[in-house]
Design a protein that fits this description.
By secondary structure, the chain is mainly alpha-helical. The chain has 8 helices and 2 strands, in the order H-H-H-E-E-H-H-H-H-H.
Length: 252
């Protein structure tokens, strides 16, 4: 009995597995520490076996040197795509950090080793809510589907342009800051106006020491209006998922 191995398909599967595993290590929601590294590797290799018939079309075996270079290229591509997704969803965490900063919650800042997030209450709350919404809404399936389609944009044997990657990173960073302001902007404006009102009150009646009352007032306003932002998170996460898929595939 002879066991025949298709070397071309095996190499293509290995290259695809490197890209997929590198992506799962850094991209949310798979980068969460609750996912063991073994699970990420198995998920990446299993998906690589599934896409092998697609990525092996037209692939020819490489020599040792070019194959090692191709492995390094796929590692860089996977990490880059994962970082693009990370930047897109960092907008939710950054919005929570802005709310903590203007609402006076940063005094209770702590490090969460599971999510690798260093922030106060709303930072961690928004990050965990976005993570839960990605799974309950099926957004992670769209991200995985976009990752599979990335093999059409950047084939295994193809090279990627560094300037295109730099442009994508700059665009993702700009989109992150814009989304952060869109999410947390209304509440930040309310808290800023509260500070302005307290400042005017201090000028009119210095004996009241209005800024001492500012902490409970701002905390109350934050808790009151943050509920409205929290209710809008599902639509925000859905929109960010579309942006992440577009960043991965390079098209809308």
């Amino acid at each position: 009995m002879e066991l025949s191995v298709d070397a071309d398909r095996l190499e293509a599967t290995m290259l695809a597995g490197v890209r997929l595993v590198a992506f799962f290590v850094i991209a949310p929601p798979f980068s969460y520490r609750a996912f063991p590294g073994t699970v990420k590797v198995i998920l990446g290799l299993g998906l690589a076996i599934g896409v092998a018939p697609r990525v092996a079309v037209g692939y020819e075996s490489l020599a040792t040197g070019p194959f090692l270079l191709a492995l390094l290229t796929q590692l860089v591509v996977g990490l880059s795509l994962g970082f693009l997704v990370f930047l897109v969803f960092a907008a939710v965490q950054s919005a929570g950090a802005l709310i903590d900063l203007f609402g006076g919650f940063t005094l209770a800042q702590a490090f969460d080793p599971q999510s690798q997030v260093n922030g106060a209450q709303f930072t961690r709350l928004f990050q965990m809510a976005a993570l839960a919404l990605l799974f309950t809404s099926g957004g992670y399936q769209l991200i995985v589907g976009g990752l599979v389609r990335s093999f059409d944009a950047v084939p295994l044997t193809g090279a990627f342009a560094v300037d295109d990657l730099a442009h994508a990173l700059v665009a993702a960073m700009s989109q992150m800051f814009l989304a952060t302001l869109q999410i947390a902007g209304p509440l930040v404006v309310v808290l800023f106006l509260a500070d302005v009102g307290l400042g005017l009150l201090t000028r009119v009646a210095p004996a009241l020491n209005a800024f001492q009352m500012g902490f409970p007032i701002k905390i109350g306003l934050t808790v009151l209006f943050a509920g409205a932002l929290f209710m809008a998170l599902p639509s925000v996460v859905s929109s960010l998922t579309g942006d992440a898929v577009q960043a991965i595939t390079g098209r809308g």
